[in-house]
């Protein structure tokens, strides 16, 4: 089937490739990166992974106090997604999303604060809520207990995080030092403007020196996330104490004496926070709600856009296949593929409102090509597809078949990776947006791994051979 080439950059790039055929040795020079570059990347990546495992790190993006302008900006972003959905997917039912977004601004008038009590199993969440609910800490307070953290089921963990996210303040209970997973959760709280207190409960079960050591460890561990005044030790439901009394006649009487809760430091800190930060606590909850609604809308929008983007990727992968099949010279293959991929980037960027200029698309196309070579994807895909094509004896001896099928496959990988990358980007009204190579590299690796299944490759080869003007066996 003939393909009409009506894109100026695409046509010009292919025409230029025929004039620059002497550039044949360039591909050999690039491929020198191959084995050692891949091994070096693996070694370096393994080192970073090891360090990351030893010391979990969280990018603390939001360290400054939350301002109302930031909250209103988040609401505006959610509204923008809603408008985009209405424009690009008029048949999509988003009535619930629209209603939730419309109610966001009403949250500024809210008076009641919700405090979530969370933590692992048997840390005393229920006991703490029972005592706090009976105290007159402040007006318009409600307490809610989350599902235990660290559960085996993912749904339970998600439910606990959702309750905490929808609350204005979180009391995070522990029985000892923090685990790495708990530290990461606190880091996520900090990133999401979630106000929280770290509470060491059941201190009565430890000796004084042990209690002091645990509290000091906790304060040191969370120092990047919070102030020392927000780390405290309490006893929400202390164990009964055995009392022994010796009588004059030498007998001994024993009984269990109930102990009262030791929450003075927590109640004092709560009263102070509510009095001084009530407004910001509510702002934080509205901001999180707005960002969650924006994400829900963006997922719907990405689904709509992906439906439009996939035919674009498939169109260009077969154009590349035909071009590479007709031009068996490596230099011509590289130049033609780069030109076609540049036009694909322009078209995909329009779908995802990224507005890549032609020059930026050309530069990005070259970067993507070099990255594929550096990661060894070109060599791996060519070897894999070549082995599959050996079963087609007639087509295997045709000079440009391997080049054509490999070029189509790599173009598909590049296109799918760009889709995944664009889906996470914010809308760019003007061209010149910086291409984040690090994030794209992550997407490229993921997409390549997902598309290395033998069944998929066999089907891809079958379809590709039907597109190329050769006789298959």
UniProtKB/TrEMBL annotation:
Gene3D superfamilies: P-loop containing nucleotide triphosphate hydrolases (3.40.50.300). Pfam families: DUF697 (PF05128). Keywords: Membrane, Transmembrane, Transmembrane helix. It comes from the Bacteria. It is a multi-pass membrane protein. Coiled coil: none annotated. GO terms for cellular component: membrane. Transmembrane segments: none annotated. Its main location: membrane. It is found in: Membrane. This is DUF697 domain-containing protein.
């Amino acid at each position: 089937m003939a393909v009409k080439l009506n894109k100026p950059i695409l046509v010009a790039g292919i025409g230029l490739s025929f004039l620059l055929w002497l550039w044949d040795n360039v591909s050999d020079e690039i491929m020198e990166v191959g084995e050692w570059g891949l091994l070096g990347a693996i070694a370096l990546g393994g080192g970073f992974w090891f360090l990351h495992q030893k010391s979990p790190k969280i990018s603390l993006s939001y360290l400054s106090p939350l301002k109302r302008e930031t909250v209103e900006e988040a609401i505006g972003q959610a509204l923008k997604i809603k408008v985009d959905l209405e424009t690009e997917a008029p048949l999509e039912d988003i009535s619930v999303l629209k209603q939730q977004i419309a109610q966001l601004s009403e949250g500024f008038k809210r008076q009641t604060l919700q405090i979530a009590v969370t933590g692992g199993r048997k840390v005393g969440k229920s006991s703490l809520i029972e005592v706090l609910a009976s105290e007159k800490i402040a007006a318009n307070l409600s307490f809610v207990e989350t599902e235990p953290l660290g559960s085996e089921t993912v749904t339970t963990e998600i439910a606990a995080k959702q309750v905490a996210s929808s609350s204005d303040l979180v009391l995070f209970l522990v029985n000892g030092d923090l685990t790495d997973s708990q530290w990461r959760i606190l880091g996520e709280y900090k990133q999401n403007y979630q106000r929280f207190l770290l509470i060491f409960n059941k201190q009565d079960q430890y000796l004084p020196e042990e209690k002091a050591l645990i509290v000091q460890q906790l304060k040191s561990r969370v120092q990047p996330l919070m102030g020392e005044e927000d780390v405290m030790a309490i006893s929400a439901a202390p164990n009964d104490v055995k009392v022994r009394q010796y009588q004059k006649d030498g007998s001994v009487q024993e009984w269990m004496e109930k102990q009262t809760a030791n929450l003075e430091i927590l109640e004092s800190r709560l009263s102070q926070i509510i009095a001084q930060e009530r407004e910001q606590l509510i702002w934080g909850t509205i901001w999180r709600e707005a960002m969650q609604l924006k994400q829900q809308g963006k997922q719907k929008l990405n689904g709509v856009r992906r439906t439009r983007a996939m035919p674009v990727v498939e169109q260009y992968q077969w154009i590349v296949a035909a071009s590479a099949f007709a031009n068996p010279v490596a230099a011509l293959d590289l130049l033609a593929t780069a030109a076609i991929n540049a036009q694909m980037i322009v078209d995909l960027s329009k779908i995802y409102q990224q507005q890549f200029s032609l020059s930026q698309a050309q530069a990005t196309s070259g970067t993507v090509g070099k990255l594929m070579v550096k990661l060894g994807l070109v060599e791996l895909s060519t070897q894999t597809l070549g082995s599959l094509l050996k079963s087609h004896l007639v087509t295997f001896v045709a000079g440009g078949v391997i080049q054509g099928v490999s070029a189509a496959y790599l173009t598909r990988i590049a296109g799918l990776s760009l889709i995944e990358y664009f889906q996470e980007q914010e809308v760019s009204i003007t061209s010149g947006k910086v291409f984040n190579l690090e994030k794209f590299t992550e997407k490229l690796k993921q997409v390549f791994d997902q598309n290395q299944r033998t069944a998929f490759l066999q089907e891809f080869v079958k379809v590709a051979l039907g597109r190329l003007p050769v006789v298959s066996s």
